[in-house]
Specification:
This protein has 257 residues and is an alpha/beta fold. The chain contains ten helices and seven strands.
């Protein structure tokens, strides 16, 4: 699998970004709304928002569930989510070791959270474990090729990996098979966001806490000279509209035990 994810650093980054998250999480809102539309239209007993972040989708999920639990690895994000008051419970926990009883959740919703797991197989095993026999688990996760423009531009600056590694579609299918969980619905979509300049792209990633957490991270400061090289390298992708594209490949799935 990938390089070890520093989960403490991950939680801290998202915690620091909690107050600014909703303002900059344009992709996350778009993907989450798409995932909501895939939920089978029925009433659920216990529901779980796995990796709830700032809790943007809790109000939608609360309407579907008698009891909704919000879970995130970041206490800062949970605190932000708690300000909404849309869930009955809030738990700080790791997707790879859910602090929940087996077969306790009728609906599990996880939008753009599972790509941060070090062992995705274990995360999906945990989802299967806590899901009831007739329950549904819905997920959206980033796939290989996401942020390819930014990754390519960084190669003109240095030899470090500045962008997170994401699974390919075939690898994700293998992960689900190994976890022993069945996929009822499967679709892969490309989302392209647009920004005026590279600075705005970098700031948007920072403000949602989505800076790199796996691979060989570069700890040095981004100097003016390096930023200039990055900007120049990204220019090859500028569109006739004058904007810079940022591409995300997202896999959506509806799962059964």
């Amino acid at each position: 699998m990938f390089e070890q994810v520093d989960k403490q650093a991950l939680a801290e980054r998202f915690g620091k970004a909690a107050s600014s998250y909703d303002q900059y999480a344009l992709l996350q809102k778009e993907v989450g709304r798409n995932l909501l539309s895939l939920i089978p239209d029925e009433k659920y007993g216990n529901g779980l928002d796995l990796g709830c972040g700032s809790g943007f989708f809790l109000s939608n999920l609360q309407q579907l569930c008698n009891y909704l639990l919000a879970l995130d690895i970041s206490t800062g994000m949970l605190k932000q989510a708690g300000l909404r008051g849309d869930a009955q419970g809030y738990v700080c926990g790791d997707a790879e070791a859910l602090p929940l009883r087996s077969e306790s959740q009728d609906l599990v919703f996880s939008s753009l959270a599972l790509q941060w797991c070090h062992e995705p197989v274990q995360a999906f095993r945990e989802i299967k474990r806590v899901l009831t026999s007739q329950g549904y688990a819905l997920f959206a996760t980033l796939n290989e090729g996401s942020l390819f423009e930014l990754r390519d531009a960084w190669t003109a600056v240095d030899d470090y990996e500045h962008i997170n590694q994401f699974m390919g579609v075939s690898e994700l299918r293998s992960v689900l098979q190994e976890a022993g969980i069945r996929c009822k619905t499967w679709q892969v979509c490309r989302h392209v966001m647009h920004y005026a300049d590279v600075n705005t792209i970098l700031q948007s990633l920072k403000r949602i806490g989505a800076s790199q957490v796996n691979g060989e991270r570069h700890q040095g400061l981004l100097t003016r000279q390096k930023l200039l090289r990055l900007q120049q390298a990204y220019e090859r992708y500028r569109l006739p509209t004058g904007l810079l594209p940022v591409t995300y490949n997202v896999c959506y799935g509806v799962l059964h035990r």
